[in-house]
Write a structure and sequence with these properties.
By secondary structure, the protein is mainly α. The chain folds into two domains: 93 residues, Recoverin, domain 1, CATH 1.10.238; 157 residues, no CATH class. Helix content is 54%, strand content 3%. The strands form two sheets. It has a two-stranded antiparallel sheet with strand order 1-2. Strands 3-4 form a two-stranded antiparallel ribbon. α6 runs antiparallel to α11.
């Protein structure tokens, strides 16, 4: 496998920072299922050809300039035929990734609610499928439900970024975090999540509080921040709301923790 392909496979499985545009595992699962289905249907030896790839791009709702760009990115074999294997296909999908409309407070609050209602290890696959349907990420229904066994807190990170990139919601009269800002905040969250469980708690929660209160270093409270548990939706939401209030961040944080029943 080409070195670049090997590197991108590590990236798409969320093994590195999300500062830069990155395919989320939930996207990779969808794309590879479609790719592999075509391979089986056409009995190809690990590669899809030009016509098959064009059909797949259209199936994944890639249109107009993005479709032309995707077509031009298809590598050629020694005989000049445009073909691609799975890794090369994912590279193309990464290159045509949309920038998106970012996230608003309402959207983030829905993710907080979604996480709070999740009682199993992972988010209900039907909910993930519904989200993808709303984004029109594919023209035909996904044949199988997503089979993730990742913790819900980690799936939440993926869904925030996918929504920021692909949501067609037009934000009016709202403070919105741009897609690059959402990626930056999720990346910062991951850096502070030392035990990599998708939740800031204990010393991680203390570090979050100190960072949030950089403009209010002197504060007095009886709140035991050590016991709070912050997921990534809370983290991004609190930073968005913080943009509207330039002073007294401690009172803001305390009110937010109470409002979202974290203390």
């Amino acid at each position: 496998m080409h070195l670049k392909s090997a590197v991108i496979l590590c990236v798409v499985y969320f093994c590195t920072s999300v500062w830069e545009p990155t395919l989320m595992p939930v996207e990779v699962e969808l794309y590879l299922e479609k790719f592999v289905t075509l391979l089986k249907d056409n009995q190809n030896n690990g590669f899809l050809h030009h016509k098959q790839l064009l059909g797949l791009f259209k199936e994944l709702n890639i249109k107009n300039e993005e479709l032309e760009k995707a077509e031009n990115l298809i590598p050629k074999d020694e005989e000049g035929h445009a073909i691609a294997n799975q890794a090369e296909f994912l590279l193309i999908m990464l290159d045509v990734l949309p920038e998106g409309n970012g996230l608003s407070q309402k959207q983030l609050e829905k993710f907080v609610e979604l996480y709070n209602k999740t009682t199993t290890r992972s988010i209900d696959p039907k909910i993930i499928q519904k989200i993808f349907k709303e984004f029109e990420m594919t023209r035909t229904p996904h044949k199988e439900l997503f089979r993730s066994n990742r913790p819900a807190a980690k799936e939440l990170m993926e869904l925030l970024i996918v929504t920021a990139e692909r949501s067609k919601t037009a934000h009016r009269n709202e403070i919105v975090l741009s897609t690059p800002k959402v990626r930056t905040l999720v990346s910062n969250f991951k850096k502070n999540d030392y035990n990599n469980n998708g939740i800031l708690s204990g010393e991680e929660a203390i570090e979050f509080v100190k960072d949030f209160l950089t403009k209010d270093p002197e504060y007095s409270t009886t709140i035991n921040f050590y016991d709070i548990k912050i997921n990534v939706a809370h983290y991004v939401l609190f930073h968005l709301i913080k943009l509207r209030q330039v002073r007294d961040h401690f009172c803001l944080l305390e009110n937010l923790l109470r409002k979202y029943e974290l203390i």
